[in-house]
Amino acid sequence: MYRAVVIGGSAGSFQEVIKILGALSPTFPLPVFLCLHRLKNVRSGFVETMALKSGIPVIEPYSKDSFEGGKAYLAPANYHMYIGQDHCIHLSVEEPHQHSRPSIDLTFFSAIETFGKEFIAILLSGANRDGAAGIRKAAEKGALTIVQDPATAEVPVMVQAALQTTKVSHVMTVPQIIDFLLSLQEPKISAV
What we know:
Elements: E1 5-9, H1 14-23, E2 32-36, H2 46-53, E3 58-59, E4 72-74, E5 80-83, E6 89-92, H3 104-115, E7 120-123, H4 132-141, E8 144-148, H5 157-165, E9 170-172, H6 174-182
Parallel strand pairs: 1-2, 1-7, 2-4, 3-4, 7-8, 8-9
Antiparallel strand pairs: 5-6
Helix pairs in contact: 1-6, 3-4, 4-5
């Protein structure tokens, strides 16, 4: 049983995330948390573009906003995003991790604390190692881990780093990731 989907990405991941969100239907049962590296001084246009293409609402949350199934929550530019056990999102401006804020690792670590093994960790294209430690810890905890096939990643550094650190559940192309997520609408899955 899965309670959430957490997706991390950096350079080359934006269009892939758009494809994933665009394939989801309004009845998708799980919350989707998006931690994507982006320019810290670009405040508008990013979430709006995603929202226009997405099959579920895309929200750039404020700290202490609660989360629910069937919505995507995008880490705001220049803020770490933590998924809290209090069923709320918490934002932080603490120091960058792996030269990144938001940090994919930190979002994954918080998902592990909140959901244990009952979540899906997905890592997409990117240009640094952020996310590799988070995927490793998620795999160690027993969460389902998916890494984009490096041969299909626009910038494969991030996914290659993840594959060098741990054995993940699946290496998939983005169309395969989409097919997998669409299969989650079966009754055996329970949303938070």
